[in-house]
Amino acid sequence: AELRMQPLCHRAQTPTVDVVIVLVRVCFLGMADCPAVKQVPSRARALFSFTTADREQPILRVGQEVDIAETEERENAAVWCRVVSAEEQPRTWPWVPLSFVAVTHFRTEEKTPLRCFESGHTSLIFGVDCTADGSRIVTGSRDKTLRLHSSADGSTLHSLQLPGFVWRVAVCEAVGLVAVGCWDHSVHLVDLDTFAAVGQLQGGHTTHVFSVAFDRAGRRLVSGDAGGGMAVWDVARRTLLHRLAGHSQLVADISVSGGRLAVSASHDRTLRVWRL
Fold it and tell me: Has this prediction a pTM greater than 0.70?
């Protein structure tokens, strides 16, 4: 028998303008390659007075405005900063503990991608996900293909033709699967290693599937469609467990917390929390 579930709670959002994000290239920003503490100048105010034995006057006075020229991580993860006086005649000051000042302004610094490469798709990319170590990337497109890329050089490792537009993809390494939300009203399951189609979840949706999310263990999958419908699936048995009724418009995204709760966001401007 089919079981329909109601949300534990929902929250209305203020009206927003719908935005469609189109990915035309796959780019990576290098986080691991950056210093632990970036040397980004910022504005600060001294919290304490600070002096050294070789100076008669304090290096910092309480309330003094300074510019942070650079920062540096030292022993025991302590961060020090070199400050430039914002008072009197500008001059470079020695290093002082960063904890001695309250930062009042951060200067943002633009980063460039580690790599940027063409995806191989011939139409818009709507879905992207990657493995935990970032070595493999899965993309889905309006050209009805699913592609597996190497993040090292951008090469396409595998490509799979599907029967409809690919709206969303989700990788679950715990079970070695990729879930694909598709235009044909179903969720396709693809083996992450061989990239072969290994299953199809049908009967839970009457319109195209726009969002998919695994639980942490990969035992259950939650999907949402363009009409506001949602479904919970047993991944191993490829069966429908529940339908989730509540949204009145497209379910744009789903997040699963552990294996017990799911949160859905919809174009009806509501968030809904579900117990799985």
Answer: no
